[in-house]
Inverse folding.
């Protein structure tokens, strides 16, 4: 079926020379030629709803800090190709703080005030946190004051008093930013709407493959400060959204029957700094 869909878009959108770049449960991603340009064709699977919502965010940003959405329908997206490195090599070369600073620069572009209306398709953070609230309700009903109960209580407080509502990437990390002739650009957004501080959270859980960094308390506090100072937000709220995010991520893993040790380990590292 994927080959049939690929051929459909190659013909319909006058594309050529497909090269598979990545394959996930939600999409197959190809580099293709469109006229004189090399661009990206993302062919969506039947469960690629998040990709469709993400396209609304890309359309809203219109190239500001993110790859441009060139064309889209219900089955595929045609995107600007940021063919350079992501930020992982920079970390591997010993420039961890510089990589985080570059993420700050991208986030500030994405979150810049806009006269455009926020798209209706985007997912509010309260809906995004649904799995956490459901797990917390179950634990509370069982008489447990679990980490999920505490995280849900904190999330409810944060969402009840949001600051700087913006269109959010929702999955900002070192592998979702690549270099291009236009500078560093984000891609693969989840397409959320809520307090901009949330977009800092996943950065502190990354990059994968560097546990000595991710589980370092000194690094955690230093990079939370880099994000907070660079974005003009409160460091406590950066840590609070990180705590909520890793507990939410643990819920997602458990729903899939997978282990969530890394998320819970990071939650344990953050919690003492929140005064819960």
């Amino acid at each position: 079926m994927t080959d049939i869909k690929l051929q459909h878009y190659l013909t319909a959108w006058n594309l050529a020379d497909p090269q598979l770049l990545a394959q996930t449960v939600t999409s197959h991603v190809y580099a293709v030629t469109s006229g004189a340009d090399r661009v990206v064709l993302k062919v969506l699977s039947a469960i690629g709803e998040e990709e469709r919502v993400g396209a609304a965010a890309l359309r809203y940003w219109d190239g500001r800090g993110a790859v441009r959405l060139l064309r889209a329908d219900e089955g595929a997206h045609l995107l600007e190709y940021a063919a350079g490195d992501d930020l992982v090599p920079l970390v591997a070369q010993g420039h961890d703080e510089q990589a985080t600073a570059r993420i700050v620069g991208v986030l500030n572009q994405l979150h810049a005030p806009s006269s455009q209306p926020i798209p209706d398709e985007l997912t509010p953070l309260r809906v995004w946190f649904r799995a956490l609230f459901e797990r917390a309700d179950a634990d509370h009903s069982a008489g447990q004051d679990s980490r999920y109960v505490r995280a849900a209580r904190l999330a409810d407080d944060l969402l009840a008093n949001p600051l700087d509502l913006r269109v959010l990437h929702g999955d900002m990390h070192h592998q979702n930013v690549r270099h291009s002739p236009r500078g560093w650009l984000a891609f693969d957004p989840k397409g959320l709407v809520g307090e901009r501080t949330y977009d800092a959270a996943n950065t502190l859980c990354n990059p994968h493959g560097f546990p000595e960094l991710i589980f370092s308390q000194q690094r955690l506090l230093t990079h939370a400060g880099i994000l907070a100072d660079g974005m003009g937000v409160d460091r406590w709220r950066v840590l609070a959204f990180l705590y909520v995010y890793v507990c939410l991520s643990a819920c997602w893993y458990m729903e899939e029957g997978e282990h969530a040790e890394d998320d819970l380990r990071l939650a344990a590292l953050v919690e003492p700094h929140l005064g819960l």
Observations:
- The chain has eleven helices and ten strands.
- The mean pLDDT is 95.
- The chain has two domains: 2-80, 88-273.
- The beta strands are 16-23, 27-34, 37-44, 69-72, 76-80, 123-124, 165-168, 177-180, 183-186, 192-195.
